[in-house]
């Protein structure tokens, strides 16, 4: 048996939603990357289904949203059912499914997990890659003496699951374990998972229903005196039911408490669910598309990285209840957070210490998620114990209260070298550490309406948003000109080089967008120094559009006064720095904290 040897910048282990998104993001940015998965074929049904509003925004920033929306099912509404005075279930409220303010997508999008993965994996061939199946690592080792050298310090032996004679030694600069809850990478590196399992066991069935239950196409929480059921509407007229199961049932080992998925019978699950819907009927039209049973594990890995050379992402480093629809979304957000940092370090634009912020930001998020999940699961668990008399008003309020966090829009990264909030008052509502909110602005040259998210794409660049205030105000033009000159002198707006596949590529690390406060008729894009825009489409006005129906609210909604502001948005769309138009020194310091200056010789 001969073992092949190869070299790659990043090896991604696991092609679930997390690994697929990460590999896509890296390959799209010219990083040499391979992705392997131990399974013969991708997921074709079931598993995770709901994408949250924040991830939909991220998909839009990658230009992938049209595809996702076309195939998925939008869920706009949540219905809550409780027993009425006569004991029969009745609807007590019908509320928006998403209550987070100012999201571009006020709904969940459901589809089977394989469809979500394919949003990314179907793009890989464009970059000359594909998921390599069925390959799994058999060993991983990090050469601790070479951690800071520009070499390949991680060695992974991989083997084909279908043909053990196919082995390869992969030398990688970085390895990402996106290999799910039972992560081989996590276990091999001796990283502990901290947390526990809840006791209750839940059943899940996906099927096309034959029913007279009226809220079958909304997320419905049905709490009756004879049972509980959660409905999640899906693609192709399908629904998913979540059903709490009896502790003493035969599919759970009484001693180990482990569930035996093989022992589950979907007809049995539906029979249990039917009790909650009485007097409505609920049958499966054409059998079942998918089913499972699970217990909720709420665990977070002790570390998300070893020596900033091997990283864990997704279920490999955090697990929680599926009911809030968070795991896949959290994994994708891990990928989104890690991708640009790896890209910057591999391009030699950033010091490796930038990678510290991955664990700082995403592990804290995972802990917050477990905290949220405990409260959320507790709500469901208490409803599962039928007859406990949950107050319908309290129930509806609880569902709405969780909205901001659940949507992903509430993610708030703490202060660090890439989130600096010393001058927050310059743009009061552009909260440093939170994602940049959507807003309508106009392109100054042709008054075209633009969603600001569409000029903040996931293209690996930082965006510097210069809010000039009233450019005709006294001393304004001089102030903007002086800012532009200092930025140019400091080479912040220059193109930088990086090597990809032995070729030198050039691109800017920081793109500038200028937003003028003023009226269309009185403002010219030429008022902005040319060095601040790479293209005329990058100068905007905060004014209403020609119909008078949209636009003109950016300064107000962002909390920016007539004196203007400068806002740095990170490549992942989060606000990194807010400062005044005089804050050029602060801008340089922000980048200096982690950037490798241009022209520095690196090892
Ligand atoms: C019933 C149910 C419903 C859910 N619903 C939702 C939802 O609506 N929204 C949501 O956000 N989350 C949901 N989740 C959670 C979600 O499924 C997970 O959080 C998500 O799949 C994690 O993605 P991942 O890529 O990190 O891991 P996984 O999806 O587990 O993918 C890991 C991949 O790695 C591969 N792999 C594993 N080990 C190896 C190895 N040694 N070598 C190579 N490859 C390996 C696997 O084959 C797999 O393809 C649900 C979970 C369940 C059980």
Give the helix/strand layout.
Layout: E1 4-13, H1 17-28, E2 33-36, E3 50-51, H2 53-61, H3 65-71, E4 73-75, E5 77-83, E6 89-96, E7 108-110, H4 113-121, E8 131-132, E9 135-142, E10 154-160, E11 167-177, H5 184-188, E12 193-207, E13 209-211, E14 219-224, E15 227-233, E16 239-244, H6 266-277, E17 282-284, E18 290-301, E19 305-306, E20 310-312, E21 318-319, H7 327-346, H8 356-384, H9 392-401, H10 403-407, E22 440-443, E23 449-451, E24 462-469, H11 476-489, E25 495-500, E26 503-508, E27 510-517, E28 539-542, H12 554-558, E29 565-569, E30 575-579, H13 584-592
Bound molecules: flavin-adenine dinucleotide.
Write structural notes for this entry.
The protein is built from 13 helices and 30 strands. It is α+β, with helices and mostly antiparallel strands and 603 residues long. Strands 1, 2, 8, 9, 10, 11, 19 and 20 form an eight-stranded mixed β-sheet that branches. A hairpin with a 5-residue loop joins β5 and β6. α1 runs parallel beside α7 and α7 runs antiparallel to α8. The chain is globular. The two termini are 36 Å apart. The structure holds flavin-adenine dinucleotide. The site of flavin-adenine dinucleotide (FAD) has 34 residues, from α1, β9, β18 and α7.
Q: Show unreliable segments.
A: none
Structural class: alpha+beta
Number of strands: 30
Average of per-residue pLDDT values: 92
What is the overall number of helices? Answer: 13
CATH architecture of the domain at 4-73 and 110-194 and 297-382: 3-Layer(bba) Sandwich
Straight-line N-to-C gap: 36 Å
Gross morphology: globular
For the biggest sheet, the summary is: 8 strands, mixed
CATH-assigned fold name of the domain at 4-73 and 110-194 and 297-382: FAD/NAD(P)-binding domain
Beta-strand fraction estimate? 25-35%
């Amino acid at each position: 048996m001969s073992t092949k040897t190869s070299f790659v910048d990043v090896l991604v282990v696991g092609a679930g939603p997390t690994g697929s998104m990460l590999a896509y993001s890296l390959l799209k940015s010219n990083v040499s990357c391979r992705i392997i998965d131990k399974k013969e074929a991708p997921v074709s049904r079931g598993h995770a289904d709901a994408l949250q509003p924040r991830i939909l925004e991220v998909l839009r920033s990658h230009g992938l949203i049209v595809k996702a929306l076309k195939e998925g099912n939008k869920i706009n509404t949540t219905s809550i059912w409780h027993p009425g005075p006569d004991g029969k279930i009745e609807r007590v409220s019908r509320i928006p499914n998403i209550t987070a303010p100012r999201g571009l997508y006020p709904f969940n999008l459901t589809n089977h997990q394989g469809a979500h993965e394919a949003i990314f994996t179907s793009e890989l061939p464009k970059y000359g890659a594909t998921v390599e199946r069925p390959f799994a690592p058999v060993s991983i080792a990090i050469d601790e003496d070479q951690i800071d050298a520009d070499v390949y310090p991680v060695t992974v032996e991989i083997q084909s699951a279908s043909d053990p004679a196919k082995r390869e030694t992969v030398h990688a600069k970085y390895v990402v374990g996106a290999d799910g809850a039972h992560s081989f990478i996590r276990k091999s590196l001796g990283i502990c998972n901290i947390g526990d399992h809840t006791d209750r066991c839940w059943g899940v069935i996906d099927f096309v229903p034959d029913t007279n239950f009226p809220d079958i196409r909304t997320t419905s929480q049905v709490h009756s005196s004879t049972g509980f059921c959660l409905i999640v509407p899906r693609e192709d007229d399908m629904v998913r039911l979540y059903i709490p199961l009896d502790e003493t049932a035969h599919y759970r080992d009484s001693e180990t408490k482990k569930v035996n998925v093989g022992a589950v019978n979907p007809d049995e699950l539906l029979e249990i669910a039917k009790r909650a819907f009485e007097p409505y009927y609920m049958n499966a039209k054409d059998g079942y598309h998918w089913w499972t049973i699970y217990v909720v594990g709420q665990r977070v890995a002790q570390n998300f990285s070893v020596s900033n050379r091997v990283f864990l992402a997704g279920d490999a480093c955090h697990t929680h209840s599926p009911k809030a629809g968070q795991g896949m979304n959290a994994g994708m957000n891990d990928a989104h957070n890690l991708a640009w940092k790896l890209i910057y370090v591999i391009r030699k634009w950033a010091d490796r210490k930038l990678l510290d912020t991955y664990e700082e930001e995403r592990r804290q998020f995972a802990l917050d998620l477990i905290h949220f999940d405990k409260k959320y699961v507790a709500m469901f668990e208490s409803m599962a114990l039928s007859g406990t008399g949950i107050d319908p008003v309290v129930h509806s309020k609880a569902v709405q209260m969780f909205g901001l966090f659940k949507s992903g829009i509430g993610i708030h990264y703490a202060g660090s070298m890439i989130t600096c909030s010393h001058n927050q008052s310059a743009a009061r509502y552009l909260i440093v550490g939170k994602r940049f909110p959507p807003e309508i602005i106009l392109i100054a040259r042709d008054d075209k309406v633009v969603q600001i998210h569409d000029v903040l794409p996931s293209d690996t660049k930082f965006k510097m948003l210069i809010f000039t205030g009233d450019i005709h105000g006294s001393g304004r033009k001089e102030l903007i000109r002086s800012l532009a000159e200092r930025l140019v002198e400091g080479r912040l707006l220059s193109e930088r080089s990086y090597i990809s596949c032995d070729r030198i590529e050039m691109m800017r690390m920081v793109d500038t967008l200028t937003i003028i406060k003023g009226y269309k008729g009185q403002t010219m894009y030429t008022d902005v120094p040319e060095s601040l825009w790479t293209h005329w489409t990058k100068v905007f006005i905060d004014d209403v559009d020609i119909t008078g129906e949209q636009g003109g609210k950016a300064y107000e909604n962002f909390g920016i006064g007539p004196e203007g502001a400068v806002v740095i948005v990170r490549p992942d769309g989060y606000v990194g720095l807010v400062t005044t138009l005089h804050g050029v020194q602060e801008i340089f310091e922000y980048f200096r904290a982690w950037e490798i200056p241009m022209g520095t010789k690196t090892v």
